[in-house]
Predict the 3D structure of the following.
Amino acid sequence: MDLDQYFDPLGAKVSAHIRDLSDGRGLGVRESDPVILVSVVKLFIAWEFRCQVEAGLIDPAAPVRVTPADRLGGTGVAGFRYDSQISVWDLASLMMEVSDNSAADLVVKQMGAGALRSLPARLGLKDTRLLGSPRVILEEVARDLDIADLEALAHVLESGALTTEELRATSAWDPMRTNASTPADMTAFLRHIWDGPAPVAADVRRWMGRQLTGGRLSRLAPSTVKPFGRSGSLPGWLNEVAVWEWPDGRRHALAIFAQVTRRNFREVELAMSRAALALTEALAEGQ
């Protein structure tokens, strides 16, 4: 199918896949191409965390103290001014609902980085590689740029001293050197979530349904569709994975990753939503 018609005029490239959650049928465009996850990785963190809670390995009420050393900047505890104490469960909620990077780091610390890295193999996702939480990825960027630490990196980024080209040459923009997957693997993972243990799946779906940022794929969707999503972005990448539940009982997993060359993000986001609609129509026609 031709999704490029929506993206070529915008100077963007799309990789996308849709999967029917009932029977596993799917189709896509460049669905096996590697793509960077950015904040979409938080969906994997949430799943592993919730599984460990269910297994009794993590106490969801365990208090975690958040200090300046933990804060990366951004939303949630990542942008707090003062020290705070919060349960690990609420950190997971902030990670998913407002894309809190520091919360993601602290949740991974509680569940173990090794558990995150081994998750794709345990799920049979052969084209997915998870290296670590947001802090790990930013530390690699600092090393790429020969910057001493994350505090210094934050100052450099805020100053605007780095060009877009310099940033895009770092590991965070390279699917071979960062958290990465493919659209087809992502829809397979979404199907795993929807078919997973009921208490675990219900909580992860609830978090996806409460995401306050993103919603790119559902912008042009019918109002009768119930969307669940997780988005991610960097300069040059706009990503979102989602499940759409239709009133007639259909459930579609969608993964759309767009590489952007201009500052036309709003137009590209609308193209992503158009692509999502086109994928659902194409899948229906193939029935």
In short: Residues 123 and 192 are 8 Å apart (CA to CA). The radius of gyration is 18 Å.
